């Protein structure tokens, strides 16, 4: 910007130098000028400017009008807007002045392209003022004698120009000075207003583009006065308790105008104003007595004024002043009621007299005391009792009867009318009918239908029903001609019990009660349901009633909602009086979810979910299954027992076969040369520990005998022959089941001797087998010369330790002996060790001691009688021999000498030597 | 009277009368107040006896009730024109004597002067409604501009004259109220008085 102006300044300097050769000696002379000079133009109008060149410059610089160019704020104006009027004048025309800007300059293109400024003007664009509108005036009373008039108007649109507003006013023959607004353009205040002359008032707006005047307002200023409010207001009480006198001062003289007034008042603490009727205060005054007020009540007063004819404006309200009326006697007796307590003794009552304090407008002053009078109506001779009470209740102890209680309230002025209450012996009169309630905003309306008899008044009792506290009774008295009242202070969502008693002239009616809510809501919680009993297809649900605090309204119904996990929900509505319900048609062994909803008129609330599973079996189904099964089982058992009992012998034979008792064997008596004392008491002595190492066990498989070859049986044939020729035979001890077949038994009783004789003649024999089966045996039958009974030692052991122990010892012994193969303990045949000289086996000399036990459970021995055992002894030997596996282990290298051999024929197993045939 | 017979003229007349009555009442109240201020300000005795002011018709008149309306209006107009001149003179003298120091008294005088002027205008309007010509103020102009100029009064005499003017104005204000009330009455007396 600076450079631009600098350039312009340089241009001007150049022009001066060019066009003013004599500038140094006089005023600066320009080479031209613009007409008009700094015009003010109306916005939107057209405008033409002329640039006129000086003749002197034409000759000097060869400057002509055709070289003129126009610029607006350094912006070239299109040449279409130029017009060369003559050699020295060029014009430019603008159709709309809104396109103009300041400055508008006239320039010359000298010497080709050198632009030089000739002249410039300032163009101002704006609007002519609009006609001011809505002129209005008001005269304010400023002081007792001073009035000012303030007029306001709408100045109209913005003109963009400096516009002057003038408030002008005049009388027909008097023109007053104009009022010129300060800082604003829409109001002005005129002082020293004169009344009672019509004054013409108007507003004049003026700017460079024109002048406009408002419509004139012709008004007598007295008609637009807003007077000052009455001053020094005071309130005073008079003799009457219902009157207060209000005084004030008017600050406007009657000569100026007469006034009318407006008085308002209210009770202190109340927000509603009351007004004195306007016609009572329509005349000029400075005081007024307000009547119809309440005694002993504080009032607030305020006053305002305006011209009497109502033309003009009301003044502001005066400052508020308070006054209190004087006391008066109470206007009515206190509402009286009683509560009779007969709990102690029916014959004597405790009567609680209760009454309400009078409202201020009823008390009309300060209640100093209450006077209670009690008269026994049933006994005329009874004296009247009087009580002076300062509280609002009194308790009496009365005998049952009829009493008339009178209550009077007293203040400093006087006593109230008496309140009378009849306390009857019984409430036997007719009650009210059709007791009902209806909520009305925040009040609860209680209505009833009056009984047929004339009712003096009604007593309405109500209390908040609570499950946790007693019902605290509130009460109210209504006149006998009303059939409904509004109860105040009722809380929403709370249950109230309302009772209405009609009071007759000669007694009291019984009370009628109703429960009511001012406003209901949905319950605050839902019932908690649970099952009492669950069956296969039914479930008994139980729940507790909601407390009255939780109900929030009248419970209209309960709704049971139950469903399976994936099933639809089933809804059942239940009467609100019930606390139990049976769900039926349920699916067995199914999980159900049940919840319960309590509903009032205003909504519902659902309790927590409860789940239960129905039973798989119904009642008695299990018993129906289990009992027959048990019975069948018992029957089967019984039958089994009976069968076993019948077949006991067979069973016994299979399970407990008869074991021959060796102690009863005749063998014990078989050898007559049994030394009385023989050192066979202990096998340990006989077979010292560790010395019995080589024992061979001969297994005899009875069933295998058939598979034996004839070659195998030859030695037995020889044995038979040998037996038949010898005095004794091989022992049949242990002729057990192995020798069940008498035919196969090899016995020494071939000679037809009795078993007993046979036993006495049986001798031990030594069988020496040098081969087995396919081997070439060297059969040596060595007959034992011993006549010692085989079981002598056993008998002795039985003598010492009993047969059972002895047997056990023997079994143990054989177990040790046959320790290489314990299965032989179950073998039917017990091996008997014998001394066998194994000739072919160079290193071994084996002694095989065979012992055949009758306790073997070998089937071959089943059914074998005891008395036949001896007969089968020879067979035992035969059988066992057939299947034996002989493993001679005796070392032949160190045979014992005869002298060293014990003189016993008991089978011996000796480490060195052993039993040697003699 | 043709104009007076029209309803608008009757309303205008009644309005002018009503307004004139109230203006006269206000003027009287203000003049009374001004008298007190003037007496105090000029150091005069309120009970001082003042001779009748020259050029002002006396308010008291015999057979007042026998006057016609026009007569009343003309007498009132003459009186208030005289008061307007006198008050203007008083205001000028007041400014010369006290300068701007006692602006309150000057404003009160100016206010009364305005009221006198306004009342004179009311009277002229009423006379126009009566279709009567309004007398010119040549006499006053002659008094002001005529060859015999009024004798130059001393300062005290000026004060006494001012007191006299205000007292007479107060009385005239009372009379004017009564005159206008009489005019406002739609009684045939006006017509009877005019008929001769």
UniProtKB/TrEMBL annotation, chain A:
It is a single-pass type I membrane protein. The chain crosses the membrane at residues 625-645. Residues 793-802 have a biased composition (Basic and acidic residues). GO terms for biological process: interleukin-6-mediated signaling pathway. Coiled coil: none annotated. SUPFAM superfamilies: Fibronectin type III (SSF49265). Residues 719-762, 778-808, 879-902 are annotated as: Disordered. Residues 131-228, 229-328, 333-431, 523-617 form the Fibronectin type-III domain. SMART domains: FN3 (SM00060). This is Interleukin-6 receptor subunit beta. Belongs to the type I cytokine receptor family. Type 2 subfamily. The gene is Il6st. GO terms for cellular component: external side of plasma membrane; receptor complex. It is found in: Cell membrane. Residues 1-25 form the signal peptide. It comes from the Eukaryota. It comes from Prunella himalayana. GO terms for molecular function: cytokine binding; cytokine receptor activity.
TrEMBL record, chain B:
InterPro entries: 4_helix_cytokine-like_core, Ciliary_neurotrophic_fac_CNTF. It is found in: Cytoplasm. The keyword Cytoplasm applies. Residues 136-146 have a biased composition (Acidic residues). Its main location: cytoplasm. Gene3D superfamilies: 1.20.1250.10. GO terms for biological process: astrocyte activation; ciliary neurotrophic factor-mediated signaling pathway; negative regulation of neuron apoptotic process; positive regulation of axon regeneration. Keywords: Cytoplasm, Developmental protein, Differentiation, Growth factor, Neurogenesis. GO terms for molecular function: ciliary neurotrophic factor receptor binding; cytokine activity; growth factor activity. Pfam families: CNTF. Residues 135-154 are annotated as: Disordered. The keyword Metal-binding does not apply. GO terms for cellular component: axon; cytoplasm; extracellular space. Belongs to the CNTF family. CNTF is a survival factor for various neuronal cell types. Seems to prevent the degeneration of motor axons after axotomy. This is Ciliary neurotrophic factor. The lineage of its organism: Eukaryota, Metazoa, Chordata, Craniata, Vertebrata. The gene is Cntf.
